[in-house]
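Bench log, entry 3. Co-assembly request; chain sequences pasted below exactly as received.
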Amino acid sequence: MISGNILVNAAVVFYTVGFAITLFQIVSRLDKPAIWSRACIWLGWSIHSLAFIFRWIQTYKLGYGHVPVTNRYESLIFFGWCLALAWLVVQRWIKEAGIAAGMQIIAAAMTASAGLVPNADVEISPLMPALKSNWLLFHVVTCFLAYAAFAVATFVAMKFLVSRKSKTEDSSFDVVSENLMYRCISVGFFLLTLGILSGSAWAQQSWGRYWGWDPKEVWSLITWIVYAIFLHARLKRNWGGTKLALLAIAGFLAVMFTFLGVNYLPALQGLHSYA
Amino acid sequence: FTANIMGKPVYLETPNCKSLMIQAVRYEPDFIMAGPERIGSRSIQPNNPAVLIQVKCGEEKPESQWLFLNHKTVHTSVLEAGLTIQFDSVNQQYDTGLEVVRDPGSPWVAVGALLLVAGLCLYMTSMKKMGVKNN
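Structure output for the full assembly:
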């Protein structure tokens, strides 16, 4: 377990170094640092993957054998991994250093915050009976990849708003970033739908109902509706520019509340309290 | 002497207190403490049985203390001169709770879910046709 933690910390260090290099790239207006920043993220992500596999093997060694995504500590680490993965995928098309910086720092911050969680369940414990299901992997992976895709869209939206304000960029960036936002959110929406569907199928299996208005369930529905509005506004009302970017950011705020906020409000303690 | 508590309060007369109430308010078969307010059981196996004892003399403020079967000398509650409480044995009984659900509409839920996914797949594959501005 200790060596697993060292790997996670190393991944955080690489993400942070990548972020620092990207900042230097922005300030210096050079192109070369981008390669080094990319190398850092690749390296960090590889180490992060190793840490994940390592912990997975550990659960088998302890005789429990479950994917290590079953408590707050593990899910934050997994979310960081998904964010880094999303960035590695989209960087083929997105070259903006500002967006790179955003994705790198959020991946580092999410992964690192696993250690800051009060009462972090660092120790591997057996899975509670309600969580033992084959749906676990599918539900968690689809949801977190959706969140990661939404994170990319949000940083594109932020970059869009900033560059629009300073008016330093040409208008072609607007069209490109609108499309990027739209595509990321389409992919995220698809995954989030799968996540909610698998979640309710799983809830039916273990709790006897598809939908129980648990705080996490309600907030995932709110998130889903916000992004549904985004897609409809884009396609049917032909929204674009600032309005659409703000909608993308609003959607991500809902995501963050679904993922983190719900668990910290004492009044909203629900069945998802473990992640 | 031994008192069988079983969830009901036991009243004793001691030199310092006329009516001393002792009650077991909570039992955890496999005690774990993950934080100040996070006490629970790792499992239902009696691997580390712990009992939360509440003691009250008359109308005074009640005192409570966790006692452990496996560590009898730890946390032994010294309430007043000469009186200590020890957790000596436990007879754990198991109950089974069964919940039965009948869902005549579950095939329709499945159809709905499939339609939703099919619709999204159609949407993802036809994004360009729907007039999305291309880069």
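Chain B touches chain A at residues 34-35, 38, 42-43, 99, 101, 103, 106, 109, 113, 116-117, 120, 123-124, 127, 130-135 (CB under 8 Å). The radius of gyration of chain B is 28 Å.
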